[in-house]
Amino acid sequence: MARLEIRNLAKRYGDFYAVRDVSLSIEDGEFLVLLGPSGCGKTTTLRMVAGFIEPSAGEVRLGGQDVTLLPPWRRNAGMVFQSYALFPHLTVAQNVAFGLEMRKLARPDIERRVEEVLALVRLAGYGDRLPRQLSGGQQQRVALARALAIRPDVLLLDEPLSNLDAKLRQEVRVEIRELQKKLGLTTVMVTHDQEEALTMADRLVVMNEGSVRQVGNQRDLYERPADRFVAGFVGRSTFLDGTIEAPGRFTSDGGLRLACTDGAPGKATLALRPERVEIAAQPLSGLDNDLPGTVEFVSYLGAQIDIHVRLSPMDRLVVQIANREGGFAPEVGQQVHVGWPASAGLVFAQ
Ligand SMILES: Nc1ncnc2c1ncn2[C@@H]1O[C@H](COP(=O)(O)OP(=O)(O)O)[C@@H](O)[C@H]1O
Ligand SMILES: [Mg+2]
After folding, report:
1. In this structure, are 190 and 269 located in the same domain?
2. What confidence tens digit (pLDDT) does each residue in 35-48 have?
3. Is residue 39 lining ligand 1, measured as CB closer than 6 Å?
């Protein structure tokens, strides 16, 4: 049985749907990430699960129980808010005790649990401090401790790393995943950061404009994106607009005739991953597609180099190559060939 189940959940503000018809089920111990651009409805979804926002339609089931109409403190969900939402005038210990007091635990139990979870997040001895006397990373851990103190059935994390600087963010990713595994916690994390999502998730849910676009693991989303949005949001793609003339034959709006593997005749978009495209000074033999082009822009990114190649007045594509010693390093203005197997192109009907 799924630990957390969301059925046809929706939230409407006037005529505007912040979330429309979201259904998900999260298994015991799973780390699920909701990934999507700002404003796509991630926070609204999470807050409906936690009970801070009342759904316009749909159902939330936690541990088999329908909790849709229960207030936050009557459902066993621990939430870490994006800005942490620590009470500034309460000490660390009082902040962590908050959910336990709402649930009316006995004082000695509260004290024991507060100590336990502060030790768990490596903040033993910080109980008497005020939040402002802590660093950003420590405040984040207090928020996590407060969510864990209630021994939640599900842990909900809303962009928990967004206020940390880049280096700390990398460390905290690992810390959160290790803690989650150690405790076997069923977790839903929300983020707009694809790298964060890909490195942390067991399974991902890509959202856009209030709806779920695709659910799957990293490989599913990258190799078989459900639509153009996912192909552009998870990993990178170059998009060529055009028409499928016949099965396996695509003509771009700029007049390029290309081989592809799938797609029904009609207007379509061909998406190419920059690292699946080859580039050379001479024609590329043995590939289904080989096109001449001109290098327009080169961006040096350390381990990799991105090369933007003009193929026609309307078609430009990005090729990513590894930065290897003695490797091919084209320069702006240079004539090159790019090529790829038909199977590298993802076709989306328009
Ligand atoms: N209380 C509200 N009233 C009206 N619109 C809202 C309200 N809360 C959120 N929205 C809108 O709903 C959409 C989804 O918001 P949110 O869930 O916060 O997105 P995300 O967390 O993915 O950035 C946004 O367009 C936002 O402006
Ligand atoms: Mg948000």
Report:
1. no
2. 999 999 999 999 99
3. yes
